[in-house]
Amino acid sequence: MRRVVAAICGFLMASLFVTVCGAQQPPPQTATKVTPQEGDYTSRDFHFRSGETLPELRLHYMTLGKPVRDANGRVTNAVLILHGTGGSGRQFLAPQFADVLFGPGQLLDADRYFIILPDNIGHGKSSKPSDGMHAHFPQYDYDDMVAAQHELLEKGLGVSHLRLILGTSMGCMHSWVWGETYPDFMDAMMPLACLPVQIAGRNWVWRKMLMEGIRQDPEWKNGDYTTEPRAAIQIGADLLLIAGSAPLLMQKGYPTREAADKYLEDSMKRVTAKLDANDLLYAVNASRNYEPSGKLETIQAQVMFVNSADDFINPPELGIAEREIKHVKNGRFVLVPVSDQTHGHGTHTWAAVWQHYLKQLLAASQH
User: Fold this and answer.
1) Which of 273, 341, 274 has the alpha carbon at shortest distance from 308?
2) Cα–Cα distance list, 222 to 34, 97, 114, 214, 276 (Å)
3) Burial class (CB in 10 A: 0-12, 13-18, 19+), 68
4) At the N or C end, where does the chain have fewer CB atoms within 10 A?
5) Does 237 fall in a domain?
6) What is the dihedral of CA 353, 112, 41, 84, to 10 degrees?
7) What is the average pLDDT across 127-151?
8) Residues 14-39: b if buried by 16+ CB within 10 A, e if exposed
9) Which CATH number characterizes residue 165's domain?
10) Is 335 left (phi over 0), alpha (psi -120 to 50) or beta?
11) 249 against 27, higher pLDDT
12) Using 50, 70 and 90 to split pLDDT, how confident is the model at 33?
């Protein structure tokens, strides 16, 4: 039972919002024993697709390892790992990810690869509404986020090519945008836990419910609140908990009403203590015009696309992944079946479940 409860907390931390479980604890130790290097890149006069601009856009990032350059000075070992909605690059230091991938002799050994973990616009220590602009912050979308990532790599870190892009949830969707916008930039892509089509159906409905729940709270005050709007935060947390849930693990971990009630009470305290209504609204709304399906044929990289069968957000019965991967000339889709090792949507951060597919991808894309 203790293992199941710990696993549930872990998958929630790794799913849509890392604030759900354990967010106030120190960063986990990883098998790499390497201290991440942290930095900030400032993009001057950043232009958003909405027509808005920011004089200074701050992009925070962490790196592991060191860049290796070829005779022409091009970095050959860079790996970009992209987090999900509400997360940050730091979430990939969690043991279920870092201790499986970044250690000596492991697939993304930090002594071999230059691993880049950015905080995307609106997230972590990067520029976001809660820094002070509130609802006057530019209305960013996924294209803006990917453009900022690209600028960080080229101008901030001197990286003009990637060995691999690995993205989870929102980062999974970003990887499809990357593959279409910069098709020659990467050798391989591993999108985890998303679909390469516009967000519609139930996936859009729960997001719309969350956003309207924030906007319709009188305490939100069109984003100019001085204290967090209680109802807005409650609704947001409710929907995030459900969207990131894994039925099998939750049933095993909380088999009685009393246990489930206690889980809900404890989780809500943790989640609501960390959420900001504007940050949440902006982060969810950034998916509003995501639609990569029309250009999948333009992707040049080797693609290993992985979803799990217990994912509430991307349910397998839709058949979308199997249909769309046919348009990716170097693509393969894998659906991981439900088991005691899967964690719903958050399976994307439990690397032991899918690392053998990453191994196949790295071998297939090696020059």
Assistant:
1) 341
2) 44, 38, 42, 9, 14
3) middle
4) C
5) no
6) 0
7) 98
8) bbbbbbbbbbeeeebebbbebebeee
9) 3.40.50.1820
10) beta
11) 249
12) low
The structure tokens listed for 319 are 């058949």
Phi-psi region of 42 (alpha: psi -120 to 50; beta: other; left: phi over 0): beta
Q: Are 190 and 361 in contact (CB under 8 A)?
A: yes
For every residue of 330-367, DSSP letters joined together read TEEEEEEPP-TT-BTBGGGG-HHHHHHHHHHHHHHT--
Residue 133 lies in a domain: no
Q: Is residue 253 part of a domain?
A: no
Could you tell me the residue range of the domain that residue 96 belongs to?
A: 2-126+140-194+285-364
User: How many other CB atoms are there within 10 angstroms of residue 137's CB atom?
Assistant: 22
Judged against a pLDDT cut of 80, whether residue 23 lies above it is answered with no
253-283 burial string, b = 16+ CB within 10 Å, else e?
A: bbeeeeeeeebeeebbebbbebbbbbbbbbb
Element (H, E) at 40: strand 37-47
316: closest CA among 331, 303, 304, 306?
306
Amino acid at 25: Q
Q: Is 290 helix (H, G, I), strand (E, B) or coil?
A: coil
What does residue 162 show for φ and ψ, rounded to 5 degrees? -120, 135
DSSP notation for 74-114: -B-SEEEEE--TT--GGGGGSHHHHHHHTSTTSTT-TTT-E
| 260 occurs within a structural domain | no
Q: 3-state DSSP call for residue 9?
A: helix
Q: How many CA atoms lie within 13 A of 323 on its CB side?
A: 10
Q: How many domains does the chain have?
A: 1
If one compares 130 and 8, the residue with the highest pLDDT of the two is 130
Instruction: Report which of 131, 137, 125 is spatially closest to residue 59, judged by C-alpha positions.
Output: 125
Q: What is the mean pLDDT of the chain?
A: 91
